Amino acid sequence: RPHHRFWAHSIDPDLPPVTQLNGRLDFSETDISTRGAGGQFQFLTGQFLGGPGSASLQSRPDGAIGISAQGTAGVAALRQFANLPFMDRVSGSASWRGNLTIRKRSFELSADSNLQGVTIDLPAPLGKTAPEPMLLRIERAATVDADLFKRFPGLRLQPRGDAIAVSLGNVPGRTVNALLVRRAEGKAYSVDRGIVALNEAAG
């Protein structure tokens, strides 16, 4: 079975770059995976958002490619990628888990973290100490078949655009939900519609 072994590669899609990528990728005419010769899943490893990460990859019967990943991300590295106005009041690092499904010309991404290890020096409901857990979930989709568009049927996907949903907090009275619909303008994106809701759904 043909395979390709990555050594210290860097990739840079429309996501923060993955560097020092190492691991083995097995492929055939019909599928691709990180399953080794013994049939056991192996992991690609690398550096992502300032911390170590690992991922497994597997083709699916419907032709999609599923990627499951986990790791630790640092706020300092995230700030370089998404330098939002409040990011100078956020510090630390936290573990995360994510899933990416790739289909022809579309994808669906989700990532979760409890943000333990991250300090947010902001008023309630956003502020938190480092030991305090606060659930964060980020979803991004570029296909109307994604769960995100099924949960928000009123969303309209722009040509070559995407939708992003962010949910922060799981304690009543301390939740923030945001929903963005973006359209592509050249190599960049611009927001076509956005909603931010406190203590209620964004849809």
**Hey, roughly how much beta strand do the residues contain?**
over 45%
Q: How many β-strand runs?
A: 13
Largest sheet: 13 strands, antiparallel
**Low-pLDDT windows of residues:** 6-12
User: Would you tell me the overall average pLDDT?
Assistant: 85
Order of helices and strands: EEEEEEHEEEEHEEE
Radius of gyration: 18 Å
Distance between the termini: 47 Å
What structural class results from the helix and strand content? mainly beta
Helix coverage percent: under 10%
Please tally the helical runs, counting DSSP H or I stretches of 4 or more residues: 2
**Shape, please?**
globular
Summarize the structure.
The longest helix is centred in the middle third of the chain and has 7 residues.
Q: Describe it for me?
A:
6% of the residues lie in helices and 54% in strands. With 203 residues, the protein is mainly β. Strands 1, 2, 3, 4, 5, 6, 7, 8, 9, 10, 11, 12 and 13 form a 13-stranded antiparallel sheet that branches. A hairpin with a 2-residue loop joins β12 and β13. The radius of gyration is 18 Å and the shape is globular.
